[in-house]
Amino acid sequence: MNIGIRTVGIIIIISLIVISCTQKDNLVGTGGSGEQTPLNITIDHNFFTDMYSYEDSCAYSNSNTMVLGKYNEETSYSLLRFTTLPDTSVEITSVNISLEIKNRNNFDIVDNTTLKLAKINDIEWFENATWWISSDSTDWNNGEHFSETDYTNLLPEEYEIECEEDSINIILNTNILEDWINEDVNSGLVIYSDTGGFMEIYASEYSSDGNPILSFEYRETEEDTLITKTIETCYDCMIYETDNDYEKWENELKISNIQPVNIFTKFEVPDSLFTNAVIQNGHTIEDSTALFLQRITINRAELVLNNDGVNSYPISGSIYLNPYFVTADTINTDPANLEIPLLSYEDINDLYISSSTDTLQSEKIHIDITKIIQYYISGEYENKGIVLRSLNVNDNFIHTEFDLEPEIQIIFTPPYIEE
User: Fold this and answer.
1) Numbered ranges of CATH 2.60.120 in the chain
2) Among 39, 256, 332, 335, which one is least packed by beta carbons within 10 Å?
3) How many CA atoms lie within 13 A of 18 on its CB side?
């Protein structure tokens, strides 16, 4: 009996919804007599008044991978530090560090020719995330940020690198571990590469299956038998050398993840594009333009960027872009003022707009900005421009550039007009 009542109730509710959606006076119909047909308009590149790309600050974030490699003169380093070492030892043998690869990008060969190891120079660092830059908790040697002055390369005979499928095994000279045990400061290792390409290595945040592992055999006294010890990293992070200057490029549209580069653009949204489209469709507009625009429904609005693939890296990669409202009244367009970026994260607002994704092989990348256009034409938000920011800043070396002929494709439904 209760099931029957619920079924009847559901049918009544669905019927009411269908009736309400097909009423003649409904603002945005989906078909039927008296309803408006969605219209298409395009805001072409001639309506874009400002186009900039700019370096953004590097955010701290936890991740389960570390990136090491080099692209476009940016080198990303992986730092490892193992603690909970024995207090003393009389003999150490078989020192190995095992790493697991998550992804490779143009990094097919993994050995002593492509990877370099270095000792950090007596600096006790505590970063334990896979992204950190210019840490306030570490006194790097130049007083500002991590750089080549903070490490000393190991000699070729001090290590051997082997790789089988996605497992890296680093065989270390026993003197290195002895120094970590006996020195006042155990600074750990730096792993980096000068070759083109990059790889992602699982960090301690991942799981016990892929964490960086130090294993060795040792004896604390002459009377002891050899003990095999396995230690996970206590601190690991990804870091790169930066000058903390925030460059700006006018009339360039490019996105990078390391160092983060965002796009700022501003464009006009002419009222006439909407009104003319309605009039050309055979309707008259009796409301004021402002009221008419407030009643419009933006079904879909996409910012379309043209990507020829020439400056995309790696070509097999994908990009995830988030659009943001600009809320700041002014932006730092002075090319000589490099101390602060063109816009900071506090100057923008995403309003929970979903990200758009595409491969770098696509000739056109479409970014959903439906909510932005709806707010602009309704007058709810002032048009101060938008920012495009990668969802994966700091995570990899994804980089792509676009031409200077973007456009916005809009599908909208006019308010119902009584004939």
Assistant:
1) 27-57+246-413
2) 335
3) 6
CB contact at 8 A, 70 and 193: yes
- CATH numeric code, 27-57+246-413: 2.60.120
Query: 3-state DSSP call for residue 409?
Result: strand
pLDDT digits (tens, 9 = 90+) for 391-412: 888 888 899 999 999 999 999 9
Q: Cα(134)–Cα(256) distance, rounded to whole angstroms?
A: 19
**Radius of gyration for the chain, computed over Cα atoms and rounded to the nearest angstrom:** 29
Q: Determine the Cα–Cα distance for residues 366 and 5; give it in Å rounded to an integer.
A: 47
Q: CA 383 to CA 268: how far, in whole Å?
A: 8
How far does the chain reach from its first CA to its final CA, in angstroms?
48
- Strands (E) in 206-274, as ranges, are 213-219, 227-232, 235-240, 248-250, 253-256, 261-267
The tokens 């070759």 sit on which residue?
Answer: 195
pTM: 0.81
DSSP letters for 189-212: EEEE--SSEEEEEE-TTS-TTTS-
Cα–Cα distance measured from residue 332 to residue 338, given in angstroms and rounded to the nearest whole number? 9
Q: Which two tokens stand for residue 224?
A: 């002891």
Taking residue 51's Cβ as centre, other Cβ atoms within 10 Å add up to 20
Distance CA 245, CA 235 (A): 27
3-state secondary structure of 176: helix
DSSP state, 182? Answer: H
Q: Measure the CA–CA gap between 358 and 360, rounded to whole angstroms.
A: 7
Distance CA 362, CA 274 (A): 30
Q: pLDDT tens digits for 177-208?
A: 999 998 888 889 999 998 888 999 998 877 66
